[in-house]
Amino acid sequence: MQESSESKKEGMDRLELIALGASSTVIVVALIYWAIQISGVLEMLEMAYG
Amino acid sequence: MELLTFFEWAETSMLGSIGKTYGGVYAIGQSLHLMSLALLGGTVLVTDLRLLNVMLRDVPSEVVVESAHKWFRVALIVIISTGIFMAAAVATRMYYNPFYWAKMSALLTGIVFVFAIKRPLLKRPHASINPIVLKAVAVASIIIWFSVAATGRWIGFS
Question: Is the Cβ–Cβ distance between B42 and B25 less than 8 Å?
Fold first, then answer.
């Protein structure tokens, strides 16, 4: 608990910053990738069924 | 070009020939692959939903993470072994399938993410880690392994 409050006081350390950066990148890239895939499927469905 | 040569060689190798010739052996490999994917998905969901405070809130997250990680490693080894066997049988087709490469990219991202970022971070007492970081890591982890599973299934439908 003491360590926890110390950490919060000091802010994030290097590993935490790397983890946050990598996680944010993964989330953004995955959202873009799946948005493109889903829009591709919707476009194909529209061409096929109007 | 060299990569294609490797895939062509894999298809004609003993591993590729066994998968192509004996449907029963291929089916066993595929079943093991899917079961280990289910196991891996289970360990990922248990770990990450605990980190998000969604489930198993009465169990310390350190205990959940450590217990699940042992089975995660087992599942990953079986997934990779059976995956190589399955891919060898249809290697040339896999080479030209964009979802195969999407799955490999997601799998590689997942392995690097787990062993280079998530594990070193979660070895610390979780109370000492910034909660925003913990939650971001959990969400990213779920998304990565979802992508591995989804692109993997997409291979079969493309």
Answer: no
Residue B87, number of CB atoms within 10 A of its CB: 22
Length of chain A measured in residues: 50
Whether A23 sits inside 8 A of B130 (CB atoms) is no
Residues of chain B with C-beta less than 8 angstroms from the C-beta of A33:
102, 147
> Cβ–Cβ of B120/A33 closer than 8 Å?
no
Chain A residue with minimum CA distance to B115: A19
Average pLDDT over every residue of B112-129: 94
Q: Which residues contact A24 (CB under 8 A, 6 or more apart)?
A: B136, B140
- The pTM of the full predicted model, rounded to 2 decimals, is 0.85
Cβ–Cβ < 8 Å for A15, B121:
yes
